[in-house]
Write a structure and sequence with these properties.
mainly beta; Immunoglobulin-like; four-stranded antiparallel β-sheet; three-stranded antiparallel β-sheet; rod-shaped
Length: 144
């Protein structure tokens, strides 16, 4: 039994207070969300994709390139079971999480030279541009 402070004016507000103040519905917008944050930066030479995925190993990622679509995915399955020595209780916990992100690449990239590095919880993917698509430096044209 637990001691819960109630609003004495009416029983109805206390039901809603319990529902919204116990933390279970505090952030409904992120409920069930497992998509990692992604930053994409374009430089003169390449596109840099940063995916925030802490707690993983580099073996956890699958990165595929099909046509011009770059797909990054990961899947985790954890299962843990405990049984007491006398066999009186058994506890089994499992966790499953996965994500898949897909990005359409422009035709101006060097698909064969895409590289990925996972370090300190961030997956960095470098997508180099073709030489002809790189921005040329400004030059002065003489008038004759």
């Amino acid at each position: 039994m637990s001691l819960i402070k109630r609003n004495q004016d009416s029983w109805l507000p206390s039901i809603f207070e319990d529902l919204f103040n116990d933390g279970r519905l505090a952030d409904v917008s992120n409920f069930g969300s497992t998509l990692p944050a992604v930053n994409i930066k374009e430089t003169d030479d390449d596109f840099q994709v940063e995916v925030a995925v802490p707690g993983k190993k580099k073996e956890d990622f699958t990165i595929e390139l099909d046509q011009n679509v770059l797909t990054i995915s990961s899947e985790d399955k954890n299962e843990k079971e405990e049984t007491s020595e006398d066999g009186r209780y058994t506890r089994k916990e499992f966790n499953y999480s996965s994500f898949k992100r897909a990005f359409t690449l422009p035709d101006t990239v060097e698909q064969e030279k895409i590289k990925a590095v996972y370090k300190l919880g961030v997956l960095n993917i470098t997508v180099p541009k073709r030489e002809e698509s790189k921005q040329k430096p400004k030059r002065m044209i003489a008038v004759s």
